[in-house]
Design goal:
The structure holds two protein chains of two kinds. Chain A is built from 36 helices and 20 strands. Chain A is of the alpha+beta class. In chain A, the strands form six sheets. In chain A, strands 4, 6, 7, 9, 12, 13 and 15 form a seven-stranded antiparallel β-sheet that branches. Chain A has a five-stranded antiparallel β-sheet with strand order 5-8-14-10-11, with no helix packed on it. Chain A has a two-stranded antiparallel ribbon with strand order 1-2. Chain A is elongated. In chain A, 48% of the residues are buried. In chain B, the strands form five sheets. In chain B, strands 1, 4, 5, 6, 7, 8, 11, 12 and 15 form a nine-stranded mixed β-sheet that branches. In chain B, strands 2-3 form a two-stranded antiparallel sheet. In chain B, strand 9 and strand 10 form a beta hairpin. The longest helix of chain B is centred in the C-terminal third of the chain and has 25 residues. Classes of the chains: A alpha+beta, B alpha/beta. The interface between A and B is large, with 109 and 87 residues.
């Protein structure tokens, strides 16, 4: 299935080491392409046409003027006898030239009001292109990745480390430049360590490398960093930006969502050197692979990383259209390096993508189970399909618990003679409850009381504040000793009742029995006692009984008329109250009884919704008061007449309450509770679940309410590859992913290689990392980009191999220091006559300080962590309102990649250093240089804490003298010893501050106590604080946060 | 890629042999005053600005913007858009002809009935503007200063995307907010404060809807143009306070040592980025003093505190209005005050009166104060929400509404004492002289001397602009 699986590993990359003279035949195609006198359509002409002409004469059919396209060969040169606007070799015969050469004329192109006049240089390019024959080329990035051989370079001297250098050197020579010398070893190891692991090298690594003179030393270093688990953390950063990984949903309340296993999947994949084609397929369609593994399901979380909303009032259809459109933008941004977003509303203005293409891409994602509105998710945390991802330890614990639970269950299910005896005894104690059917039922407030088939009574209709029900019974059994009232759930009631209050509760304030005598008079038959299966304990602060006791229902209201029996916590479950008569009622034919049920709570609507009355003539006890209806029915059948299912059911029920089994049941409950607790601890992660695809239409102007557009199915634009989708079934995300990693796809490999180049050199070969389309940038070294891309594909998408290829080049190992000649000839360093110098990324700014100070906790993966964040920073989040809770202990000192990523309020230290909020695909981070960054490094407590721990370590481990300590500290900070003039600046600072803090030891103590890390008590506060000033300085240096 | 213009500048400076660092430091030390004239004054027709635009497209009418953002969705019908017909129709079904095919938020599937304005309207000022009586201060003191536009419409019906649309011109995340655009394009006139400042107050009556920091994000513009939030609780700007145990002189020493070592590094490797770093540390250190100074209103006379009705420092809208004036005086380009209290789904009669009372005096004081200092003429004040509210009842409140709502404008070349545009007789659709959010952006840029069609930034291969790709127009009718 994957190319990486079928390509032999023997193709793995061999490096051509320095000094080896390369005798590679020059490739015809490669030769001459860089001749500056030859105008090339793609390099020189297309950018001009794209920027100045395509808006009206390009791919967008709706806005096309004069039916003229300048983005196709046919449009430019004519087709089938239709004249074109360009004739190679002839300016006179080229209408295009006539028009662009005009000035102050109605026919002038571009029209003056368009505001995009051509410069003299641009006109010159067009003129020379036509004169040279007007050779046309398709847009470079959409052409197949060429199989180019590296150029031969004369006197390819010591500079050449591998093929990359041949391409670079050839171009440098044309520009009249020479490469820079190889960096000194300290710079080199620091660069390599930062680029490959995101951390500065340890002093031990530096010393080992500096002192290792073997020719393999550098390659060994490269290999060791590639094998480091920090490599995956480093690589994950840019990938997580692309796939917009975050720990919150982004829209409205920006609630948290659990998907950190996806982040760890990315880290693990880079560390395991998962081939990029497999990495791609797993994310887009891991759930569609046969028998997907947990790993692949976690990967499929990619499709669920977009923003989601739980805002009341959201129209689900609108948000479904937002979610799916964002997926297409992300697909374009992450894999294809093209901007598809504009096609949601209109055909692309510059690249040949149409609105139809956009919605056809959408159709690939139409099977993803999701909701436009995740109603209530701000309370439930349920954001759609997710799976638990236990750690190995948790998985073992879980298995063990489940095994024990099963064992106990088995014991509970086993029938024994002893149980049979116990059962017989139990049945003998059960009072028989006779369901009593009222002859009449009234409600003072005209509530409708309806007798149900099971003898129960259901209230409906008006829902009054208070009420009194009166139930009249006739011809009672003889010798009634007690009354049972079962309060029962019912679907018609709030929270299933049994009461009619919004929370399902009721309050029975008083139950009064009026016994009728033969002469028609009545008298009250008092109750002696009452018991209940449950009495509410909540909201009982003012209740004189301390709870909502059933005793209050027979107390003649002596503690007030409102108190009574209630069951709030048990809403939705059945309960029962047993009322024991002080004197049995004689009963018999002609007898009558009216039960008056007063419901007087001052909090309105706490009336009974569903209940049943029964009488007993035996001793009324709680035993069996709450038998399920079917068990009561079985018990009513004489023992000898019960059939087998009845016996089985009765036995089963009895085992569930049998006293002798209570210890086992308790054990089981404890085990289940333990397991549920463990379940709650296990991290869950969003995954993709595939369902019947929903209908996708082209939305006119992107309007989600429009239902007139064409219905589309998954399909692919045809100008990129001739890849054939299956025709016998609906194509899926898996097909889409396989298309992306098809070895003929022109974009996927180029886009990835270009971005990897940026990691290693500071800029892409094409500097627009987010757009390789027409409006992107012609790459500085197109042949090199193609050569690496082809090699990347043929290596089986071997990412580490690609990285190694880049860093083994001499181009990579060059010094980054410029000089006036380079600045003059190549101010942007396009021709790579030196390495790049740039500030490290946001997470690495933090990682650097953690590693240098010694605070770094090198633990891999896990749920996101919360380092210090200023209080109140989340004040404007709501639903729910939140305050960030700083973590404690080791979690404070993890790498930046693990910091909780809140989309609406990203951690301010990360934000200040240009980390994106990840609401959309971010292909490139800007590298700004701002005062807020200075404030972070100067004052964010984590950097102050790092400085004081660094100072403590310098004092303890750095040697005895200030010089020794500075040597020690500098080596950790920038992998080199300090220079004398640096030493004197720091010495002055130290001495001044030593004096200041000696005069103010309290200030010293405060400074060295910043943060949670234990504060040593055995150091001289003043010296410690003065050294902290020095280490704060080191952590604030430009050099410290710069990779050079 | 960072700013091409700045790189070009650096390249030029490198060639001319001038150290960028020393130039940057010099400009930091002297600020714009060093150039001898206030180059922003329209009078001398000098259109040069410090920002990426370099030169304005035409003489500006406004130098700065103060945007009073009534977050949550202020009901236009109970505040500035009087609808007698709605009183007449109160309790009757909303005509289906008005609502059919329209986007509805929480009232989806509900019976739609007309809901009368909850407070009487009155004539205010010489201009006789019709304004609800819940605005006694604004009505009596400012009716003749403001221009009420009653024909706004927007594209989003939920808070989050509607805020994003109002601030960035797009519902899709990732575009710069208007304050960032202005700071980027026009630069700023302060050397010790950010060019784009945001403050947020929270009221006591409506639902407390969230506000995302995305609303002041710089999007695809360089992140130094991100709005900076000034807070009333905790550090006024994040990390602006020196660590415990570090006095100002001690902090200065550390910064000096950093600068000295950075200068040594710069001399050794000649990387212009180091010069920028040096200037940013100077700015950061200055902010440690200038921000607390700005927030400390003890130098304001009692009469000014009385005017606003605040003692300052309490995080109220009035307090933020006073700080906005102080920021404006110091040259901050774009100041945005959010007041989170306008989401009145229920009990709107009492709640909107309550929220209006939280805002009324501060807003009126701000206009009065600016005018007294002769700053209103070149300060554009904008007042409005992300959307309006339905003419239909939601219980005894109103739901979100995108088809018609109201904003008002003052100062900065806006015609005072007038109103413009209208909704239909039930206040549902913007009907006359409709004004889109992009039109507001175009107008705002116009007042600052910028042609919105020519103010672009390359992003994803496109010449992106605040007003997007659809046509937008400057609302000339409301301009002086």
């Amino acid at each position: 299935m994957f190319r990486s699986m079928v390509v032999s590993r023997s193709k793995s990359i061999r490096f051509l080491m320095g000094g080896l003279l390369l005798a590679i035949a020059s490739h015809a195609q490669a030769q001459g392409t860089n001749d500056p006198d030859v105008i090339r359509f793609n390099r020189d002409v297309r950018p001009i046409l794209s920027d100045h002409c395509f808006a009206c004469h390009g791919p967008d059919a709706a806005r096309r003027e004069a039916d003229l396209r300048l983005d196709t060969e046919q449009g430019l040169k004519g087709i089938d006898g239709q004249p074109g606007v360009v004739t190679g070799g002839s300016l006179e015969a080229s209408e295009l030239w006539r028009r662009v050469a005009l000035t102050h004329d109605d026919e002038q192109m571009p029209p003056a009001e368009f505001g995009k006049d051509l410069s003299a240089e641009q006109l010159d390019v067009l003129r020379r292109w036509i004169e040279q024959g007007a050779q046309w080329e398709g847009h470079w990035a959409f052409q197949p990745v060429a199989g180019i051989a590296p150029p031969a370079v004369e006197a390819a001297d010591q500079f050449v480390g591998n093929e990359i250098d041949l391409f670079v050197l050839s171009r440098l020579r044309e520009a009249g430049l020479e490469p820079s010398p190889v960096s000194d070893r300290r710079t080199l190891i620091r660069r390599l360590s930062l680029d490959l692991t995101g951390l500065p090298p340890t002093p031990e690594e530096v010393e080992r490398f500096v002192n290792d003179s073997s020719p393999e030393a550098y390659e060994r270093l490269v290999d060791s960093y590639l094998e480091s688990s920090h490599y995956g953390e480093r690589m994950a950063m840019f990938w997580l930006d692309l796939v917009r990984y975050a720990d919150s949903v982004g829209y409205h309340g920006d609630q948290e969502v659990s998907i950190s296993p996806f982040r760890d999947y990315v880290i693990r994949s880079f560390n395991e050197n998962k081939p990029f084609d497999r990495f791609t397929v797993e994310q887009l369609a891991g759930d569609l692979l046969p028998n997907p593994s947990t790993e692949q399901l976690i990967a499929s979380g990619y499709n669920r990383l977009g923003m989601m909303s739980a805002e009341g009032g959201v129209q689900p259809k609108e948000y479904l259209s937002k979610y799916i459109a964002e997926r297409v933008r992300n697909l374009g941004g992450t894999w294809m390096g093209v901007t598809l977003g504009c096609c949601e509303c209109h055909d692309h203005k510059y690249d040949p993508f149409s609105t139809h293409d956009f919605y056809s891409f959408e159709a690939f994602f139409a099977d993803i189970k999701e909701q436009g509105l995740y109603s209530g998710a701000h309370q439930t945390g349920n954001w759609g399909p997710n799976i638990p991802v236990p750690s190995d330890e948790q998985r073992q614990q879980l298995q063990q618990l489940n095994r024990e639970i099963a064992d106990v269950q088995k014991a509970l299910d086993t029938e024994t003679d002893a149980l049979a005896e116990e059962r017989a005894a139990w049945i003998a104690t059960l009072p028989t409850w006779l369901t009593a059917t009222p002859a009449e039922m009234t409600s003072e407030q005209n509530v409708t009381l309806t007798l149900q088939d099971d003898g129960s009574i259901l209230a409906s209709g008006e829902n009054p504040a208070n009420d009194v029900y009166r139930l009249s019974f006739r011809d009672l059994p003889e010798h009634v000793t007690g009354v049972r009232i079962e309060v029962l759930p019912h679907d018609s009631l709030p929270r299933r009742g049994p009461g009619r209050a919004g929370n399902g509760n009721f309050v029975l304030s008083e139950l009064v029995a009026h016994v009728g005598a033969a002469d028609g008079a009545t008298e009250v038959a008092p109750f002696a006692s009452a018991v209940a299966t449950y009495e509410q304990t909540g909201a009982a602060g003012d209740n004189p009984y301390g709870k909502w006791a059933i005793a209050a229902a027979i107390d003649n209201d002596e503690k007030g008329p409102t108190w009574g029996w209630a069951v709030m916590e048990q809403a939705g479950s059945p309960n029962a109250g047993i009322f024991v008569l002080a004197q049995p009622i004689a009963g018999g034919a002609g007898s009558s009884l009216v039960l008056e049920m007063r419901q007087n709570l001052d909090n309105p609507q706490h009336t009974l919704g569903h209940f049943r009355v029964s009488f007993t003539t035996a001793e009324p006890t709680l035993a069996g008061a709450l038998l399920p209806a079917d068990i009561s029915a079985i018990l009513a059948v004489p023992a000898a007449d019960r059939d087998e299912p009845q016996v089985k059911r009765l036995n089963e029920y009895h085992r569930s309450i049998a006293t002798s089994l209570a210890p086992l049941r308790e054990r089981q409950a404890a085990l289940v509770q333990q397991r549920d607790g463990l379940d709650r601890q296990i991290t869950r992660t969003l995954v993709t679940e595939s369902v019947e695809p929903r209908m996708v239409r082209v939305l006119n102007r992107g309007n989600w309410m429009d239902e007139t557009g064409e219905v589309v199915t998954p399909s692919l634009p045809d100008f990129l590859t001739d890849y054939q989708l299956p025709t016998d079934r609906r194509p899926t995300r898996l097909d889409l992913a396989m298309w992306l990693v098809d070895d003929q796809h022109p974009l996927t490999s180029r886009v990835f290689v270009n971005r990897m180049w940026k990691q290693m050199f500071g800029y892409g070969l094409s500097r627009k990392l987010d757009d390789l389309g027409s409006q992107g940038e012609w790459p500085s070294h197109p042949e090199l980009l193609d050569w690496m891309s082809r090699r990347f594909i043929e290596s089986g998408w071997d990412v580490k191999g690609l990285v190694k290829l880049m860093v083994m080049s001499r181009t990579y190992q060059q010094s980054s220091i410029s000089n006036p000649r380079r600045d003059e000839l190549d101010p942007f360093n396009r021709w790579l006559s030196r390495q790049g110098r740039f500030r490290v990324e946001a997470e690495m700014v933090r990682d650097n300080a953690m590693r240098i100070s010694g605070l770094l906790v090198e633990e891999l993966g896990g749920p996101s962590v919360r380092p210090y964040q200023p209080p109140g920073y989340w004040a404007y989040l709501n639903f729910p309102a939140r305050e960030w809770q700083n973590d404690a202990g080791e979690k404070l000192y993890r790498r930046g990649v693990y910091t909780h990523w809140q989309r609406q309020y990203l951690h301010p230290s990360l934000l200040a250093f240009d980390a994106p909020n990840r609401e959309e695909c971010a292909a490139d981070r800007p590298r700004s240089n701002t005062p807020l960054q200075s404030l972070v490094l100067l004052n964010d407590p984590i950097y102050v804490e790092a400085a004081r721990v660094f100072a403590e370590n310098a004092l303890r481990q750095g040697g005895a003298t200030f010089e020794e300590r500075m040597n020690w500290a500098y080596l950790r900070t920038v992998a080199r010893p300090p220079r004398p003039e640096e030493m004197s600046v720091l010495r002055r600072l130290f001495e001044q501050h030593l004096e200041i803090y000696r005069a103010d030891p309290e200030a010293a103590r405060k400074l060295v106590s910043v943060g949670q890390y234990p504060v040593p008590q055995d150091l001289d506060w003043s010296e410690f604080a003065a050294m902290t000033s020095v280490t704060r300085t080191l952590l604030n240096l430009h050099e410290t946060i710069t990779r050079n | 890629m960072t700013l091409p213009a700045s790189i070009a500048r650096r390249t030029f400076l490198a060639r001319s042999g001038v150290s960028v660092g020393s130039m940057a430091l010099a400009s930091l030390l002297h600020g714009s005053a060093a150039r001898g004239a206030n180059h922003f004054m329209p009078s001398d027709m000098d259109l040069n600005v410090d920002g990426a635009l370099g030169v304005l497209h035409h003489p500006p009418k406004a130098k700065r913007v103060i945007w009073l953002y009534m977050a949550g969705g202020m009901s236009h019908l109970d505040t500035f858009d009087e609808k007698p017909k709605l009183v007449e129709m109160h309790g009757q079904p909303m005509p289906e002809s008005v609502t059919s095919g329209q986007q509805i938020a929480q009232l989806q599937g509900a019976k739609l009935t007309c809901f009368a304005p909850q407070h009487p309207f009155e004539n205010y000022g010489e201009s006789g503007q019709r304004i609800s009586s819940i605005w006694p201060e604004l009505g009596s003191r400012c009716a003749d200063k403001i221009c009420i536009v009653r024909s706004l419409h927007t594209e989003a019906i939920n808070h989050d995307p509607a805020h994003t649309f109002m601030n960035t011109g797009s519902m899709i995340s990732g575009r710069p907010s208007m304050g960032s655009w202005l700071w980027y394009g026009l630069g700023t006139e302060t050397q010790s404060l950010p060019g784009f400042v945001v403050m947020v107050s929270t009221g006591r009556f409506g639902q407390k809807q969230p506000i995302a920091a995305r609303q002041w994000h710089s999007g695809f513009l360089p992140s130094r143009y991100q709005g900076v939030e000034f807070r009333s609780v905790g550090d006024p700007v994040l990390y602006v306070r020196s660590p415990d145990g570090v006095t100002e002189p001690v902090q200065r020493d550390v910064v000096d040592a950093v600068q000295a070592l950075n200068q040594l590094e710069e001399a050794r490797v000649g990387d212009p980025e180091i010069a920028t770093r040096i200037s940013q540390y100077e700015m950061a250190f200055r902010m440690q003093t200038s921000v607390p100074d700005l927030m400390d209103v003890s130098d304001e006379p009692q009469s000014v505190l009385d005017l606003y009705g605040t003692q300052g420092g309490d995080g109220t809208f009035a307090s933020n209005c006073l700080l906005a004036r102080r920021l404006a005086e110091r040259g901050v380009r774009f100041i945005q005050l959010y007041h989170r209290d306008w989401d009145h789904h229920g009990a709107i009669k009492d709640h909107i009166a309550g929220t209006a009372a939280e805002v009324d005096r501060g807003a009126a004081a701000l206009l009065t104060d600016l005018e007294q200092r002769d700053m209103l003429k070149d300060t554009l004040v904008v007042f409005g929400s992300e959307f309006g509210r339905t003419p239909m009842a939601q219980g005894n409140g109103r739901d979100h509404h995108l088809a018609g709502f109201t904003m008002w404008f003052a100062g900065g070349g806006i015609r005072p004492g007038m109103s413009y545009g209208a909704t239909d007789e039930l206040g549902y659709h913007a009907a006359e002289d409709k004004v889109s959010v992009h039109d507001i952006h175009a107008t705002l840029l116009h007042q600052l001397g910028v042609d919105h069609t020519r103010f672009t930034y390359k992003f994803q291969g496109l010449d992106s602009r605040l007003t997007g790709v659809e046509p937008a127009r400057v609302v000339n009718e409301i301009l002086v």
